[in-house]
Amino acid sequence: MCTSLTYENSRGDQFLARTMDFAFELGGQPIFMPRNQQIQGDAGTFTTKYGFVGAGRNLSHYIFVDGVNEYGLGAAALYFSQYAKYEATAPADKLGLAPHDVTAWALGNAKSVADLRELVKHIQLLDIPVALLGITAPLHFIFSDPTGETAVLEATSHDIHLIDDPVGVMANSPQLSWHLQNLSTYGTLQAADVPLHDYEGFELATQGPGTGALGLPGDYTSPSRFVRTVYNKHFSIKTDDTPTTLNLLQHLLDSVTIPKGVKLKADGHSDYTQYRAYANLTERSYFMEPYDNLELQGVKMTDEMLNDWDTPVEYPLDHQPHISALN
């Protein structure tokens, strides 16, 4: 139910990519949110200072689940079932936020991960449902910026702070600390082949190339997706520009993309990858790739958008599959 990763190409450009895996149709699309907005969130009103673009939807107000702002801070919200803990009320000296409003608040008010580390000391996540789902969304969040610094926000108690993410990958439950410890189980995997031993004089026949990755988990559970993404990210060949990096990120997300029907919930509905998103944190651009059209569709923030626009702008996605005829 969602996987995310950061990536730095050979010229130092930083990216944040994610899959959005869900059974309920979320209907997200790229939306540009201008500077200096007053947002009537579900826990109360909050203001923003910076412009940003990301995947969102206008319900009673604009709700965002990922995106990048004008300073290159990127964010993505992922499901954190059974582990997220929220408070009933916020102290008088803190801003109360519904979990589904955190992404918009962060992108609208923080210039960097370091900036956000200080800002989160002054918020409290509250147990307030999102109208679209009728439940309080159990979420945790990954943030990254053009310096490459990456951190995760997990509300597992009333104390809210950012946790360093040294591998730049996040999936779903359990906590990031558990996923990082679990990596040690797979610490001997490698891209190169491992020679086969002879047993008792019996010469083993090869199973073909790829023996270095024997044991790499291939299922759709959160721990397996986390390990698989770290492995593929680590061993992939570096890219050197935006188009080749976006192409590589598409391939990296291929290994955790969920087709319709292969991951069923108890009620019979299928979790599937509704879209994949890619934020270039260095160039402040954002791309979405819906399930039914694998062509990247992007929005790049311009000076005109940031300086002159004062109304949110929605960019409907093209859901028609594109096929290029060669004859």
Automatic annotation (TrEMBL):
| Molecular-function annotations in GO | hydrolase activity
- Keywords in alphabetical order: Hydrolase
Which CDD domains does this one have? Answer: Ntn_PVA
Q: Which residues form a coiled coil?
A: none
Q: Does the keyword Ribonucleoprotein apply?
A: no
Source species, domain of life: Bacteria
- The Choloylglycine hydrolase/NAAA C-terminal domain covers 2-308
Q: Does the keyword Hydrolase apply?
A: yes
Q: Where are the transmembrane segments?
A: none
Identify one Pfam family in the record. Answer: CBAH
Q: Which family does it belong to?
A: Belongs to the peptidase C59 family.
**Name of the protein:** Choloylglycine hydrolase family protein
Q: Organism, per UniProt?
A: Levilactobacillus lanxiensis
